[in-house]
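Example record for the data management plan.
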Amino acid sequence: MQQQKKAPAFKLRESSEEELLKTLVQFRSELVGLRTSKVSSAPQVKLARIRVVRKTIARVLTILNEKRRTAAKEAWKNKKYTPKDLRVKGTKASRSGLSAAQLKLQTVKAQKKAANNRTRKFAISA
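Corresponding structural encoding:
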């Protein structure tokens, strides 16, 4: 089994999805080999390599996810609705808050109180 170098993200972004899947399979098989050699008391160099391979696998998966999400966003760009996972998340307060029109609504009792207790305007300012 051959050892691969740590793959930088900018180089991974240039490659296609099929190439990314191939590298993912290669890194996963390398990780399996490293873990088996760890059990059979391998030198310390291989143990340090496990962390590098794990991080590289995470990097490849992240870039795959980014590519798939951007492709899905492009596909849904000019449609009437977008799927919930592609919508802008915002904050919880902005998602659950009332709209401006809903905030302005008043009950009948509140309308009467507001009409009876208007702020008074005086000709003389203090």
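Summary line stored alongside the record: The chain has six helices and no strands.
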